[in-house]
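FIELD: query
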Amino acid sequence: MNIGENALPKALAIATQQAMKILLPLGLLAILPLSSFSQPADAGVAISEWMVIGDKTKAFGPQQDGGHITFTGPGFGDKGKNEAAFFPKIEMAEGDTLELSAKVTFTGVSGMGNFRFGVYQKRSKDHSRGWLGYTAYTGIDKKFPKGGLFASEPGNDEGYDKATTRVLGESTVSLRNIKDGPYLLSMTLKLANGQMECHAMMVPEATPGVAIADYSGVDNQPATLAFDALGFSTHELLSADTFELSDVSVKLAPKP
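FIELD: result
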């Protein structure tokens, strides 16, 4: 056997090794699950089906334009209205954090009253009852002089706007009247050691360092760990002619 005959197998072996270095990573990419290339874990979920609960004729909208959701119409401010929207169900696991944030704008406020917001699980086809979750009060209401961060009763068969005896905390700042203009709201839920840690606040956009409501509380017996709905309530005494939402976001941050 001459030198050329020995060199050929050696050259083939080297070429094979080099090819494997290139193809092996490609092979690994081919077998990775699609979830490895999904959007970031904290990307916002899709929110849809905005409505005033019970308004089957859509008399109060909403009008939707460029991410702005506007509720208004003749008589909108005459009685309390419950606005809602829905998103694919999120099942929280230990260490997960669910975050709601939004900008809300009131126009035509002509009195005192409360505004409520929260994150929930709906349990009825007509969305009118059986809501489980958390509600934060803002504005001035004589029945709730210190506001309240509320957790629904485990067997609640009412809407999210109904009062509950499960008060997780009172506002750590003095409540203030809601006036015309934009506000920023947020609610954060974190499941830790089987308990739901909840924080909620609302601030005027013009003075974000001055909250008009700020809550923190812990629910040691959560009525639900699943959420698929947002709820807002403009109390009849607030008498706002128009209620607008924008920059609405719901994000789930899994445990690091």
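FIELD: remark
Residues 176 and 212 are 5 Å apart (CA to CA).
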